[in-house]
Amino acid sequence: MQTPPFPHESATLALEGPAGPLEVAVDLPDGDVTPRPVIAVICHPLSIEGGSMHNKVVTMAARALRELGITTVRFNFRSVGASAGTYDNGVGETDDLRAVAHWVRNQRPDSALWLAGFSFGAYVSLLATGALQPQALISIAPPVGRRTWDFSQVQPPAHWLVVQGDADEVVDAQAVYQWLESLDNPPQLVRMPDTSHFFHRKLIDLRGAIQHEVRRWLPDDSN
Asked: Sorted alphabetically, which InterPro entries does this protein's record hold (predicted)?
């Protein structure tokens, strides 16, 4: 499979991944905002529980960033949608993310790389930060304490935002807060009251929280 060029307009394409083709959706900023030299790769929730790049939290996070002039790249992990392979408990999915991020950097070397993820996607993007060294990271409902996922060795960047619902029925919010408090360099934390794991009736609030917190991370010419 030939490496596809980075599109000049929003498009869905197939990228060669470690386990076969990966389904990738590139979305350019809204037409009424100035494009910024930033590309955010966004990771979706758990594949074996119906997670995909079309998840509403993922698409809202992407929308929030595009409204700031950021180009977004969503993709389906192995085994989801048109992406080949089988679920690999975060290990192979981290390789998938690396493949997408390397493609972005090769195609757009002058753009800053941001990572974002929701739930399982937050875990995968955290795992990849040490190797990829993104300029910023957005973690939405990171699944601390779920399954056997180990958060002890993550290396998040200085620009790190965590958004967590206090009424999360899937992730233990208190476990998330305790983990963050134990870190030497904790992130910017937004706690959303009365908010469930999938941000039911809170998606607009999520968009506002993301935009408010990350706006100051944009390149200087965006101000």
From this structure: AB_hydrolase_fold
